[in-house]
Amino acid sequence: FLRAAHAAATLAVQYRDTERAAGWYRDILRHEPTDETAARGLMTCYASARDMAAVRKVYKTLVESLRREMDDAHATPLPETVTLMRKFTGSA
To answer: Tens digits of per-residue pLDDT, 15-29?
Structure first.
């Protein structure tokens, strides 16, 4: 499922259908909450719609999921995810 969902999201982005891409990314994150590729994709979709509150929520949920999964209160997303968050919101 995850591979096909990523492919579908990528195609939706290529066709500039960010709503459909966001739907696929949300589905991926429901199945795998620590999937940073999907989180970055969803953040990008929300940023293109200028919904910075949603961008922040995706990032916050990702951080919480990573910390829970790793059982590490200080776990952080990959550098490229942090960089994207800073690009969109000015903070991480």
So the answer is: 999 999 999 999 999
**Judging by beta carbons within 10 Å of its beta carbon (0-12, 13-18, 19+), is residue 27 exposed, middle or buried?**
middle
Question: What is the model's pLDDT at position 90?
Answer: 86
Q: Are 85 and 59 in contact (CB under 8 A)?
A: yes
Alpha carbon separation from 59 to 4, 18, 85 (Å, rounded): 23, 18, 7
Question: What contacts 25, CB < 8 A, 6 or more positions away?
Answer: 9, 38, 39, 41, 42, 45
Residue 92 pLDDT exceeds 80:
no
Q: How far apart are CA 70 and CA 51, in angstroms?
A: 29
